[in-house]
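LAB NOTEBOOK - FOLDING QUEUE
OPERATOR: T.R.
BATCH SIZE: 2
PURPOSE: Compare the predicted structure-token outputs for two unrelated chains run back to back under identical settings.
PRIORITY: normal
REVIEWER: second-year student, initials M.K.

ITEM 1
FIELD SEQUENCE / FIELD STRUCTURE:
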Amino acid sequence: MNGIADWGRVEFTSVRELRGPLAVIDQVEGVGWDEFVLLAADGGPQRQGLVLEVDRGTAVVQVLQDTSGMDPARLRATFTGAPLRVPVGPGWLGRVCDGRGEPLDGGPPVVGAVTSAVGGNPVNPVLREPPAEPVLTGVSAVDALTTLVRGQKLPVFSAAGLPHLELAAQIAAQSTAGGEPFCVVFAAMGVTHADAGFIRDALEERSSSGELVLLLNTADDPVIERILTPRIALTVAENLAYTGGRHVLVVMTDMTSYAEALREVSAARGEIPARRAYPGYLYSDLASLYERCGRVRGLPGSVTVLPVLTMPAGDITHPVPDLTGYITEGQIVLSRHLHARGVYPPVDALSSLSRLMRKGAGPGRTRDDHLDVAAQLLSALARARQVKELADLVGQAALTPTDRSYLAFDEAFAQGLVHQRRDESHTLEQTLERAWQVLLTLPRSQLTMLPAEFVDAHRPPESG
């Protein structure tokens, strides 16, 4: 018999072929897209899969573990009649798991009173609340100039050799939500074992305090698991936020590894490629992840997403950063030039932007002078870049005293505001006071974007 029904499940033995991470099963009936599948041979280990497509009685299933050693003739595929679900709840806090949610910390399997579909549930746009109130990261370059707002999606654009993993771990370790219940879900995809060990060490304190969920998919894990990892992370985060009442920060690194896994599966399916051989649905697939953040009217908590991605060859027009930029609300860009100067984190302030910063910073949210200080810093930094280019042409001796003050400002900005240790956390007060010290390297006449009362509070009029 080809099909056997049992308690709502249907078992088929007509596995035609195994193609990389895919299993092709013929003569199926009543099978739906995204359905959860269990595959096993007589006496062999059970493996899991998800239905990618069904057409004319043929189902294509992506196997979450490696298919090596499996014999199609001996396989039984059990279709469960439901999408993949995972237990959700506070039982995830403090746990370290692999990309499929299986424990890596030696503890028992994660359990929860309820389960949720990994694909998530669409939120009615009318019920979405605008992001508001900040998530303070303790990183001055972020908090001062590209403030992260609860419910926002704000990516980090980096390149090979830059410390994006260190920055992601530091933000995950230090972030707070103004004393309100807060936790972090960290999803690492395609990382080396050394990087996985670094992440565990860097986040050990937050994990031991029960404020962290850590999912680690390493480079030698099955590629399909990499596609599942961020979806499990977001499913867990949604429950912790909207049921548990926490403000949840979801850090996902590296989204380029995720996109490459998607490309590999697409190639195995024989799909027609689009830009750089990525599937044509890359945009909608990324959106299905990024758009799971936000605040929902009538529900407590919030989900904030910080995706980290490396731009191949530093190309910001590459499909992954390009499409990510269309979906998200700004970006934090890391700079090779600042990294070469020994500045950490090497955030390029003029290329970075938080489009929702005005929703989460300023009077009543951070500090009254925050937005004015940020605007003045960026204006002065842009002028300093122009002066540096002029100095390269005519020499510093030909510059006016005001122009030379901008050169001093540029150095003070990099070393006095942006630079901090990897284990150093700055409060917002410390960050803004550092910003003021940098601004005061300029003549008072150049602080035209700051109200006089703010300037007077930090430098009396007669000293200008």
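ITEM 2
FIELD SEQUENCE / FIELD STRUCTURE:
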Amino acid sequence: MSSSTVTPASPPPGDERGKRRLALVGGSLGNLVEWYDWFVYASFAIYFADSFFPGDNPTTQLMNTAGIFAVGFLMRPVGGWVLGRAADRHGRKSALTLTVTMMSVAALLIAVAPTYGQAGYFGALVLLLARLLQGMSIGGEYAASATYLTEASARNRRGLGSSFQYVSMTCGQLLGLGILITLQHTLTTAQLESWGWRIPFVLGALFAVVVFWLRRRLQETDAFKEEASGEDAGDDSARGTLKVLWQHRRQAGLVMALTLGGTVAYYTYTTYLTKYLVGSAGMEKTTATLVSFTALTLFAVLQPFAGMLSDRIGRRPLLITFAVGCTVGTYPIMTALGSASSYWSALGLSLLALVIITGYTSINAAVKAELFPTRVRALGVALPYAIANALFGGTAEYVALWFKSSGHETLFFWYVSGCALVSLVTYVLMPDTRDAALSRAEAQADAEAEAKAKARADGGPDRPAAAPVGF
């Protein structure tokens, strides 16, 4: 972009605020539906496992459904690559629309899948196909929504804007859990096992249709429009490619390292927490479920406040606080949770852990997006994050159960602390990304401000700065 480029007139402040609100709602609600569909599979597996896999052993049936659940994690890097590339080449809006379409189709496939009694293993095949689609969709959704929410936010509010990714992600879990509790109190176990388990997937497909309509109304981000209409727009073959990502391999490595501790801790204190309270603390299932529901609700409320704090003091202080707290606090918190005997003690400890984790969850989307240039931002966020999440986040529960079954449950606590320690070293060494320019316009503004400051310091007249090249 040359220095002679005329900057278009800014839209009225009211219009700008309206667009940002729509972007926040569209990006967040879609993410909510994506994660709702992702988690209801695991939540309702106990009711539909014997519908697709014959036999008299419930454990074997659950292992089969869990195996298909795990396939979804393996597909997340594929989805991150395919949809991250699509977001960098064709726009954030189109990628967001595509991810929610895929998730809607996947939910509908599960809702109508024939049982083993109706079509043999064909039903399990449909289940597998749906899970593959879900894995691809969720792998691309994270990057598309993280990039979109960050780029669409005002520069001094990116932490706040990106924090809604985990707000919506957690609300998706809560919605699925709420529907499960409602159905458990309105249908009998026999009804749930016969046909009731299909209801949440039908709802998921309907939710996705609403979000599809909403996302079609979204505006593309200024950063992507600038990139697509710049001097290099005629040759877009390099945008979103692995070749360009390799040029930013250091940033990709940073994404994997800073994700490691956060994703392990998140899955430990969210999806694994209920099982740990029941299996290790001996708590009633209903009480453990209520602990998780309440803790996650308060956790979601915390995210925007932490995001706003990062906009004032920077990203690194929050990340370092999380990593230090998780490194030194996991063992005592998990040990205390293992002997928690009441709802309030378990809730207090769970909240303590989730407050610590908020230092990561509230801002990690912004941090990752701020590491990459526009032409490879979505892919740069998607692929390394999906790989780290598949290797460590998706396996956290299995690692915990493996240590427990081998009689060394406390070693898992040290495993979580070790992962957080790796991330801590990363946070200490990496630069703070809060002030990163995500577009040429922002880089130009920075250059002009720097030139004016220098001119004032030198006592000379202000001079316009040259436009940045190759941003």
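REVIEWER COMMENT (ITEM 2): The chain has 20 helices and no strands.
FOLLOW-UP: none requested
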